[in-house]
C-alpha cells in the first residue's frame, strides 16, 4: 500500500519537475529570441545607456539636498559612474560620505584640500602623498559642487595615477551633481513659497466678519450687557486663535472650539435663523490637522446659508471615527453652487470670489499635507446646499499639533 | 444548563454591542451648548474602554481554568496581565501618546523616520494580532459548545461573523462607549454570580479546596471523554467504565485500575463514586501536585522556575505591544491624561482579576471532572448551575455566558479593528471603504482558519504566546525608542526581526507540535525569557555599530516625546516655526517639508 503511494508520489513529482523544466526552457528560449531580435546598439551606445542609467539612479537622493543620508546613497552610484578607487562627497565643513577604501587616513587630509579648493572655487588634481604602500589612492581630483549661493561642498575622486580623463570626468560629474542640488534648492524654495502663502492666507479673517461681529456685540451692550460681555470674550478667543503665529497644525478639538466661537458670533448677528448641529465622536478630538482648515469651510456654509438666502439655515458639522482616519463633514442647506463653477474656482481660474479663497486654500493645504487622495470631496448643486467631506488620517509623519495655546481663565 | 436563558443572554449581549456601536452615544449638541470640543474622552471612560478591550477570553475563562487545573501558581497570569500596565505606565504611556502615533508602525515611523522599520513593525502587529485573535475564537467555540452542544467551530464562526459584519459596516464607530460598556458588563457578569457562589459555598459548610492533594469527586459523577486521555494513578482507583480502557472494551463494568499509566479511548463513559480522587491526566513522575504547567517535567523545579520567568517577562513587557492597546492611547487628549488613564486601568484590572481565581478554587471543589476532560476553561460557565441550581442558577449561568461572549466580542472587535486598520493602511495600498472591508476580512479569516484547524491549547496559554512575541519585538522598540537616543533604523529592524522573529518561530513551532518534550519544549513554549533579552541586545548592538544612521530628527522627536504638550506647544516651536530663518546653507537639513 505505502509502496504504491510512494511510487505514485515519485511519478507525480517527476512529471511536475519535467513540466517545470520544459516551461522554464521555453521561457528562456523566448527571452533569448526577443533579446536577439532587439537592436541594443553598438558598444558605445550601450556604454552611454549604462552611464545614463547610473546617473538617473544617483539623481533621486540628491534631490533631497546635500545631506549625509543623500550623500551616502548617491556616493555609491557616483563611484560606479566614474569607476574610481574611492569617491567622497563633502560639504563645506566635513566629509558627508566616503565610498571605497581609505576613509580612515584620507578624510582629514581631504578636508584640508577642500578648504583650499573652496577658496579658489576651481577643481584641481593633486598627489595625495599617502605613505602607505598598500593604499591605492595616489591621486585625487577635487571638484566643487555649486549651488545658488556659491560652493556648497566638493566631490573628491581618488585614482591610482594621474589621469586627465579622471579630471575631466570628475569635473563633469560634479557639474551634474550641482545641477541636481540646484533643483533641490528649487524644490525647497517652492515649498517655502507655499508656506508663506499659507501664512498669508490662514490669518485672513474677513474684515466684514470683524465689523459685523462688533456691530452685533454693540447692539447687545445696552439690552443684555452680560451677553455682550460673553460675546466679546468669544471674539477675543476667536481672534487669538486665528492670529496665532506658531505651528502649522492644531487639534480637531481646538479647531472645533474656534468654530463654536465663530458660530456664536454669527448667531448673535443672525439670531434664530442659524441652526447648528454638532455631532462629534470624542475619539477623534485629539486628531492633528492643518491649522484653520475647517473654519473657512464653516464660514462658507454660513455664508451660503444665511447671507445669500432668506430662509432658516441648517448647518451640520459631524466628525466620526473611522479606524485610522477621522471623517469630517460640513453640510448646509443654503444656495449651493454650480459644480462647473466650483471646479473652476478650485482650479484657480475664478479669482476674486471671496467664497472661493477659503475652499481653494483648504483644498491645497490638505492635499499638500496628506496627498491628493485626501482632498476634500464636495457635493453640491444650485439650490441644493453643499456638503463637504474630509478624511483626515490620525497619523501622518511630520504632522504634530503644536499644543493648545494658553487660554485665559474665563470668569 | 438551561439553553434558552443562556442563548437569550448571548443574543442580548451581541445585539446591545452592535446597537451601542452603531447608534452610539455620540455627543450631539446644538450650539447653545458650548464647548462640545473640550469634552474629550476622560481618563475614566478611556480606562474602562481599555480594560473592556483587554479583558479577553483568557482572563474571563482561562485564568479560572488554569487555577482549577494547576493551583495557585497560576495566579502569575492575572498578576502579569495587570502588571503589564505598570510597565506601560512608567515607561511608555505618556511618550507614546505625545508621539502622535495611532498604531505601533506609526510610532516606528515617527521615531526612526524610516519606512523599512515601519513595514517590519506592520508584519509583527499583524502577527501578534492574529495570534491573539486565535484563542478568542477558540474560547467562543468552547463556550457555545458547553451552552448548546454545537460543534467546536460554531462559536468561533459566530463571533468572527458578528465582529466582521459590525466592523466592516462601520458599526464600531463609537468604540470607546462599546468597550467601556463591555468592561462593566464583564465585571458584573463575574461579580454578581461570585456573591451567590460564595454564599452557596458558605452554606455548604465552606469546604476547602486542596491544591496539595488531587481533587476529590464530591458526589457520584459521570464523565464522558471527548478525546483520548492517559491517566496516571498513584493509588488503585475503582470506577465503572463503558468504553475502551487499556485496549479492552467494557460495558458498565466495575473496574479497579492499578497504579501506573492507563489509556482511555475517546467516547468512554467513566462513573466515579463520591470521595474518589480525580485521576491525573498528565505524567507527573510520582508527585501528586502538578507544578506549573504541562511542558514541565514535574521533577525539575529549575524548569518550572524558568517557565515562571518566561511568563512574567512576556506578560509584563508584552502588554505595551498589543495592537489594540496601543491604539486606545490615541484617544487620550494628551500625555498626562494617557498616564492617568493607565493608572485607572491598573485599578480596574486589579479589581477584575480578584474574581477569576475565586471561580478557579470553587471549580476545583465543585467541578473537578473538568480537569479530566480537558475543558477546565469551562469552569466559570458551569459553576452557577452546579452550585446554585434552579432558576437562579440558570439566570446566573446566563449572565456569565453573556459576559463570556462580551469578552470575545470586545477583544475580537478591538483586535480586528487594529489589525484591519494596519492592513488597510500599509498592505492594501489603494484606499477607500471597500479595501477596508477586504482588510477586515483578511484580519479575521486567517485566525478563524487557525482556530478551526489547530489543536486546542488552554486559552490563557495561547494568549501567553501572543504576549511573548509582542514582548520580544515591540517592547525593545518602544522602550529603546523612547529612552535611548542611539537607536538607529537598522538596529530597530535587526532587533525586531531577531527578537520577535525568534519568539514567533518558537511559538509557531510549539503550536505545530514540533519541538520534542523536555527542556527544548520548555524553551520553545516560554520563549520570552531568552527572546526579550535577545531582542534588546540585538537592537542595542546593531544600533551601536551603525551610529552614523541615527535619524536626523532624533533630538527634536525625543524632546516632543518627553516634554509636556504645554511646553512644546506654547513656547518656541523650532521644528515647524520659521524655516526661512535657517537659510539654505549646507547645514540646513531640517528644511524638508512633508
Brief summary of the model shown:
Chain B: Residues 275-294, 570-594 are annotated as: Disordered. Chain B: It is found in: Cell membrane. Chain A has helices spanning 2-37, 43-62, 68-82, 103-120, 164-202, 207-223, 225-242, 252-270, 295-307, 339-346, 354-370; strands at residues 86-91, 95-99, 124-127, 139-147, 150-159, 249-251, 274-280, 288-290, 313-322, 325-332, 377-380, 386-393.
Question: How many domains is the backbone of chain A divided into?
Answer: 2
β-strand amount of chain A: 15-25%
Q: Identify the overall geometry of chain B.
A: globular
Number of strands of chain A: 12
User: Which sequence of SSEs, written as H and E, runs from N to C of chain A?
Assistant: HHHEEHEEEHHHEHEEHEEHHEE
Q: Uncertain segments of chain B of ≥5 residues (pLDDT<50)? A: 25-34, 283-301, 570-594
Describe the structure.
The complex is a heterodimer of chains A (411) and B (594). Chain A has 411 residues and is of the alpha+beta class. Helices cover 54% and strands 19% of the residues of chain A. Chain A contains 11 helices and 12 strands. Chain A has a 5-stranded antiparallel β-sheet, sandwiched between helices. A 5-stranded mixed β-sheet of chain A has the order 7-9-10-12-11, with helices on one face. Mean pLDDT of chain A is 80; it is low at 404-411. Chain B is of the alpha+beta class. In chain B, the strands form 2 sheets. A 4-stranded antiparallel β-sheet of chain B has the order 2-7-4-5, with no helix packed on it. The model of chain B is unreliable at 25-34, 283-301 and 570-594 (pLDDT under 50). Classes of the chains: A alpha+beta (411), B alpha+beta (594).
Amino acid at each position: 500500500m505505502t509502496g504504491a503511494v510512494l511510487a505514485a508520489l515519485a511519478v507525480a513529482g517527476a512529471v511536475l519537475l519535467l513540466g517545470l523544466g520544459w516551461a522554464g526552457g521555453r521561457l528562456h528560449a523566448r527571452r533569448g529570441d526577443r533579446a536577439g531580435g532587439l537592436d541594443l546598439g553598438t558598444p558605445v551606445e550601450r556604454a552611454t545607456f549604462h552611464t545614463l542609467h547610473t546617473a538617473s539612479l544617483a539623481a533621486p537622493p540628491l534631490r533631497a539636498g546635500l545631506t549625509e543620508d543623500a550623500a551616502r546613497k548617491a556616493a555609491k552610484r557616483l563611484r560606479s559612474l566614474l569607476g574610481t578607487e574611492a569617491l567622497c562627497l563633502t560639504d563645506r565643513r566635513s566629509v558627508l560620505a566616503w565610498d571605497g577604501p581609505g576613509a580612515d587616513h584620507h578624510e582629514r587630509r581631504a578636508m584640508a584640500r577642500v578648504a583650499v579648493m573652496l577658496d579658489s572655487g576651481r577643481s584641481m588634481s593633486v598627489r595625495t602623498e599617502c605613505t602607505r604602500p598598500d593604499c591605492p589612492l595616489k591621486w585625487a581630483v577635487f571638484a566643487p559642487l555649486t549651488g545658488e549661493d556659491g560652493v556648497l561642498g566638493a566631490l573628491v575622486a581618488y585614482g591610482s595615477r594621474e589621469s586627465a580623463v579622471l579630471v575631466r570626468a570628475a569635473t563633469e560629474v560634479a557639474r551634474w551633481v550641482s545641477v541636481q542640488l540646484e533643483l533641490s534648492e528649487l524644490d525647497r524654495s517652492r515649498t517655502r513659497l507655499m508656506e508663506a502663502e499659507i501664512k498669508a492666507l490662514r490669518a485672513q479673517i474677513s474684515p466684514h466678519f470683524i465689523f459685523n461681529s462688533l456691530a452685533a456685540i454693540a447692539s447687545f451692550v445696552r439690552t443684555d450687557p452680560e451677553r455682550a460681555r460673553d460675546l466679546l470674550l468669544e471674539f477675543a478667543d476667536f481672534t487669538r486663535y486665528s492670529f496665532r503665529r506658531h505651528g502649522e497644525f492644531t487639534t480637531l478639538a481646538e479647531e472645533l472650539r474656534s468654530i463654536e466661537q465663530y458660530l456664536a458670533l454669527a448667531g448673535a448677528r443672525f439670531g434664530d435663523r442659524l441652526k447648528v448641529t454638532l455631532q462629534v465622536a470624542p475619539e477623534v478630538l485629539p486628531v492633528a490637522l492643518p491649522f484653520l482648515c475647517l473654519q473657512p469651510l464653516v464660514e462658507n456654509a454660513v455664508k451660503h446659508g444665511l447671507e445669500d438666502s432668506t430662509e432658516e439655515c441648517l448647518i451640520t458639522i459631524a466628525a466620526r471615527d473611522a479606524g485610522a482616519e477621522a471623517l469630517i463633514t460640513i453640510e448646509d442647506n443654503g444656495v449651493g453652487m454650480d459644480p462647473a463653477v466650483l471646479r473652476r474656482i478650485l482650479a484657480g481660474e475664478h479669482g476674486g470670489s471671496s467664497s472661493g479663497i477659503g475652499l481653494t486654500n483648504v483644498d491645497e493645504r490638505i492635499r499638500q499635507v496628506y496627498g491628493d487622495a485626501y482632498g476634500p470631496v464636495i457635493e453640491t448643486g444650485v439650490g441644493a446646499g453643499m456638503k463637504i467631506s474630509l478624511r483626515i488620517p490620525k497619523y501622518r509623519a511630520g504632522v504634530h499639533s503644536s499644543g493648545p495655546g494658553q487660554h485665559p481663565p474665563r470668569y | 444548563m438551561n439553553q434558552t436563558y443562556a442563548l437569550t443572554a448571548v443574543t442580548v449581549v451581541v445585539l446591545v454591542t452592535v446597537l451601542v456601536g452603531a447608534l452610539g452615544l455620540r455627543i450631539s449638541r446644538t450650539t447653545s451648548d458650548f464647548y462640545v470640543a473640550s469634552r474629550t474622552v476622560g481618563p475614566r471612560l478611556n480606562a474602562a474602554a481599555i480594560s473592556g478591550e483587554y479583558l479577553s477570553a483568557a482572563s474571563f475563562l482561562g485564568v479560572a481554568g488554569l487555577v482549577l487545573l494547576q493551583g495557585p501558581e497560576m495566579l502569575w497570569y492575572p498578576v502579569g496581565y495587570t502588571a503589564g500596565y505598570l510597565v506601560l505606565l512608567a515607561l511608555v504611556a505618556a511618550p507614546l501618546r505625545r508621539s502622535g502615533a495611532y498604531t505601533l508602525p506609526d510610532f516606528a515611523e515617527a521615531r526612526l523616520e524610516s519606512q523599512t522599520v515601519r513595514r517590519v513593525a506592520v508584519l509583527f502587529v499583524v502577527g501578534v494580532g492574529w495570534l491573539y485573535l486565535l484563542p478568542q475564537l477558540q474560547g467562543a467555540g468552547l463556550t457555545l459548545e458547553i451552552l448548546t452542544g454545537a460543534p467546536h467551530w460554531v462559536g468561533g464562526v459566530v463571533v468572527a461573523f458578528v465582529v466582521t459584519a459590525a466592523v466592516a459596516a462601520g458599526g464600531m464607530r463609537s468604540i470607546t462607549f462599546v468597550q467601556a460598556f463591555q468592561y462593566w458588563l464583564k465585571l458584573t457578569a463575574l461579580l454578581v454570580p461570585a456573591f451567590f457562589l460564595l454564599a452557596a459555598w458558605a452554606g455548604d459548610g465552606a469546604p476547602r479546596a486542596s491544591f496539595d492533594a488531587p481533587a476529590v469527586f464530591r458526589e457520584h459523577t459521570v464523565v464522558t471523554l471527548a478525546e483520548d486521555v492517559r491517566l496516571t494513578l498513584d493509588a488503585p482507583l475503582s470506577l465503572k467504565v463503558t468504553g475502551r480502557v487499556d485496549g479492552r472494551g467494557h460495558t458498565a463494568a466495575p473496574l479497579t485500575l492499578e497504579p501506573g499509566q492507563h489509556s482511555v479511548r475517546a467516547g468512554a463513559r467513566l462513573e466515579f463514586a463520591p470521595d474518589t480522587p480525580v485521576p491525573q491526566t498528565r505524567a507527573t513522575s510520582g508527585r501528586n501536585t502538578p507544578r506549573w504547567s504541562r511542558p514541565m517535567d514535574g521533577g525539575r523545579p529549575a524548569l518550572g522556575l524558568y517557565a515562571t520567568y518566561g511568563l512574567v517577562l512576556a506578560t509584563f513587557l508584552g502588554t505595551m505591544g498589543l495592537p489594540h492597546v496601543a491604539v486606545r492611547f490615541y484617544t487620550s487628549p494628551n500625555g498626562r491624561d494617557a498616564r492617568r488613564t493607565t493608572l485607572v486601568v491598573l485599578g480596574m484590572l486589579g479589581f477584575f482579576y480578584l474574581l477569576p481565581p475565586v471561580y478557579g478554587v470553587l471549580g476545583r471543589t465543585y467541578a473537578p471532572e473538568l480537569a479530566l476532560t480537558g475543558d477546565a476553561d469551562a469552569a466559570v460557565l458551569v459553576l452557577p448551575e452546579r452550585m446554585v441550581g434552579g432558576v437562579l442558577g440558570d439566570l446566573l449561568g446566563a449572565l456569565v455566558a453573556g459576559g463570556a461572549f462580551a469578552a470575545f466580542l470586545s477583544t475580537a472587535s478591538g483586535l480586528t479593528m487594529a489589525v484591519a486598520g494596519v492592513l488597510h493602511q500599509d498592505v492594501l495600498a489603494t484606499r477607500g471603504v471597500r479595501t477596508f472591508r477586504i482588510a477586515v476580512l483578511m484580519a479575521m479569516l486567517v485566525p478563524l482558519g487557525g482556530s478551526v484547524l489547530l489543536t486546542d491549547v488552554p486559552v490563557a496559554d495561547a494568549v501567553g504566546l501572543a504576549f511573548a512575541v509582542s514582548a520580544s519585538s515591540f517592547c525593545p522598540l518602544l522602550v529603546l525608542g523612547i529612552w535611548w537616543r542611539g537607536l538607529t533604523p537598522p538596529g530597530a529592524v535587526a532587533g525586531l526581526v531577531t527578537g520577535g522573529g525568534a519568539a514567533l518561530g518558537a511559538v509557531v513551532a510549539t503550536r505545530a507540535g514540533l519541538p520534542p518534550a523536555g527542556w527544548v519544549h520548555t524553551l520553545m513554549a516560554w520563549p520570552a525569557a531568552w527572546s526579550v533579552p535577545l531582542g534588546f541586545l540585538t537592537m542595542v548592538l546593531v544600533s551601536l555599530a551603525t551610529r552614523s544612521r541615527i535619524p536626523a530628527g532624533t533630538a527634536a522627536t525625543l524632546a516632543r516625546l518627553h516634554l509636556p504638550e504645554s511646553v512644546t506647544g506654547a513656547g518656541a516651536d523650532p521644528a515647524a516655526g520659521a524655516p526661512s530663518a535657517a537659510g539654505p546653507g549646507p547645514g540646513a537639513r531640517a528644511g524638508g517639508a512633508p
